[in-house]
Amino acid sequence: MTPPTKKWDAIVVGSGQGGTPLARKLARAGMQTALIEGEHVGGTCINEGCTPTKTMIADAKLAQWVREAPDRGIGVAGFSVDLAQIIARKNSVVTAFRTAGEKGLAATPNLTLIRGFGSFSGPKTLVVGEQEHRADLIFINAGCYPAIPPVPGIDTVPYLTSKTILDIPVIPAHLVVLGGGYIALEMGQLFKRLGSEVTLIERGKALLSREDEDIQQAMQQFLEEEGIRVYLDTQVRKVSSWHRDAPATDALMLDLDPGSGSLSASHLLVATGRAPRTAELHLERTGVEMDAHGFIKVDDQLQTNVPGIYALGDIKGGPAFTHISYNDYIIISRNLLDKANMSIKDRQVPYTVFTDPQLGRIGLTEKEALAQGLPIRTAILPMTHVARAIETGHTKGLMKAIVHTDTRQILGAAILGEEGGEVMTVLQMAMAGGITYDTIRDMVFAHPLYAESLNNLFLTLER
Fold first, then answer.
1. Both 280 and 136 in a single domain?
2. Domain end call among 252, 272, 292
3. Among 41, 203, 247, 450, which residue has the fewest nearby CB atoms (within 10 Å)?
């Protein structure tokens, strides 16, 4: 006998970085709220994204420091990498974050965590197992998963994704990475520093396709200086396994574009993008509209075309960042509970690529500003001219800012350098507060910090 439908004031599908705080906020406001989660509390960020990857990247950076220590006059004996210990530390950090999230949910009155995958059975109803749940307010935060390109033969080989590579039992002898976005670059550099030979294959003409050419070239240069091979404007035509007796270092064969030859590899990481988890939701039963790629369409206040159904986080398309998902929660909760009339339109979208050095990005690129016909000036300062970078020995990269010629407002910035994300945030705050570039140029910063060189960055516009 089918159980009767459970009725709630609100249902949140997915416990990611938008769904979890939203469920708690609604419940604390007095709504009987159900939070449906099919895997782990915390979503992609905590379980297979930001938290585990940045934990392992930190360990790989430490390995690089030790590797480079003799160049600074510091001898290191018996240097080795214990991958099992690195993964164990990563797992302990993930578990701590996940457990804290679960405790927070359990301690929230009016909130029920429902374990299992949910799918719609009607416009405002979802089924989890045999139980049907209904609410007038439904919030979809189901996220995305790694997209696998239709490369012939790829389904016949044991490829890795951004999720599965985090628990790989051995350091790959030769890791080939498909993709040129931030996941591909972060994972490629991570495993190079742990001891792998690494090759990046990007079908486009440059890494990090959105960035300006000088940023792209600087990024590629320091990756290649570390020994990473980069193939641009290259497509994989076929993937296959060698015969059974082939050495493990040559387990896979990749046939490239005519003229590019072929590559053998021990492991293949597919990092060519992510796809929305909408198919299993059966949104066709709700009337909710999606785009051609399966992402949920929303308005500027994150509501779908069906009143009462909202989408937040990666599943709605657009900038796929944890901080954007969290901001989605802020907008939805403030609008529903405080009648704030907030919107996603024209909000800032900062992000950081956690290569070493980092790329911190905010606002318009130079090519975007020119495409809009804006009157601009561009300030550029190589990290070799930054005192703090020289003192610490971290001189790779550059600082770059785009300013409006007439208003003197900062329109965008890219900080490719040590702690680039932190320095970028200084300019983000300036942009939010309407602070002009000449104010930053003349501002007193503590010496010697990386941020202090923002003085010199904007002084280049006076020369």
1. yes
2. 272
3. 247
Say if residue 121 is in the same domain as residue 200. no
Q: Which domain holds residue 442?
A: 357-462
Q: Are residues 115 and 91 in the same domain?
A: yes
The answer to whether 398 touches 381, Cβ cutoff 8 Å, is yes
Q: Which residues, listed in sequence order, are joined to residue 390 by a DSSP beta bridge? A: none
Binding-site residue positions for FAD? 54, 118, 314
Q: Is the pTM of this model over 0.85?
A: yes
Angle at 273 between CA 180 and CA 429, to 5 degrees: 75
Alpha helices in 226-357 (DSSP H): 322-338
- The reply to whether 320 and 203 lie within a common domain is no
Annotated catalytic residue 447: yes
Alpha helices of 339-401 — where are they, by DSSP H? Answer: 366-371, 387-392
**Domain shared by 381 and 457, yes or no:** yes
Residue 346, in any domain of the structure: no
Distance CA 294, CA 316 (A): 9
Two tokens at 341? 């009339």
- Predicted pLDDT of residue 249: 62
**Paired tokens of 78:** 């018996």
Which of 133, 243, 394, 447 is the catalytic position? 447
Residue 118 and residue 6 in contact, taking contact as beta carbons nearer than 8 Å: no
CB 448 within 8 A of CB 388: yes
Question: Domain tally for the chain?
Answer: 3
The counts of H helices and E strands in the chain are: 12, 21
Burial tier of 233 (Cβ tally within 10 Å: 0-12, 13-18, 19+):
exposed
Residues of the chain with pLDDT under 70: 1, 242-250
Q: What is the pLDDT of residue 389?
A: 97
Could you tell me if residue 345 is inside a domain? no
Which pLDDT value is given to residue 250?
Answer: 66
Instruction: Specify the amino acid at residue 28.
Output: R
**322 shares its domain with 443:** no
The CATH number of residue 28's host domain is 3.50.50.60
Query: What are the two backbone dihedrals, phi and then psi, of residue 309, each rounded to the nearest 5 degrees?
Result: -110, 125
54 CB neighbour count, 10 Å cutoff: 16
